[in-house]
Amino acid sequence: MVAQPFVIFSSSHLLTLLVIISIAFLLPALIKNSSNDKKFLVAKIMGISTIALELIKPFIWHYSMNFPWSTLIPIHMCNLSTLFIGIFLLTNKRLFFEVSFFWGIGGGINALLTPDIPKDFPDPQYILFFFGHGLLLVAIAYACVGLKNRPTLGSVKNGIYFSLATLPIIYLVNIILGTPANYWYLATKPATESLFNLFPEPPLHIPVLIVLGVILFYLIYSPYWFYDKFKKQDAESIK
Fold this sequence. Notes:
By secondary structure, this protein is an all-alpha fold. It is built from seven helices and no strands. The chain has one domain.
């Protein structure tokens, strides 16, 4: 089967999204009533798997697909999100969950909806891209549902501060490495269709990214805010 050029929201793209969403919902649901020992064992396995994947992927990209090393450092937002959720599942260090939650949901979902890949299934790049981003969302879902973690309003601020502190470092890495390095898409826009097409040309798109990122963080947190608000109102009405 010869891989065709990737078409956004094609049947294969939609089917892949459906599989990822199904696993992200089903795995935590199946494990949430298990013993704590089993939950933590699954967390350790998933944590090791996510970290190992991010460390192995650059070698796969380079040796099987001839990607230059300068583009393969695992510091894209989704790469770091995957590493961070893995570290959290192994160490239970709260900051890693908070950053991965917002980066993974915000960046990961956008990547899954508008992937920067040239060919459709069964191209190896397609498979590796969706496997990596899918594992990220499954791991976040497991941390939230299976292990009962959730962000707070303080988590939003921590995520924003960490992002603002990291952004100039990533920008500097792009400058030092030069083309074709394009981490966080700060140097150039993605080649495929995405929201970046609506932004000013780089680097003038960076302030727009910052503003949209802050808004997105609060939007991602908003369901928890409404839940807490209604829960508080219900508690007060009972009194």
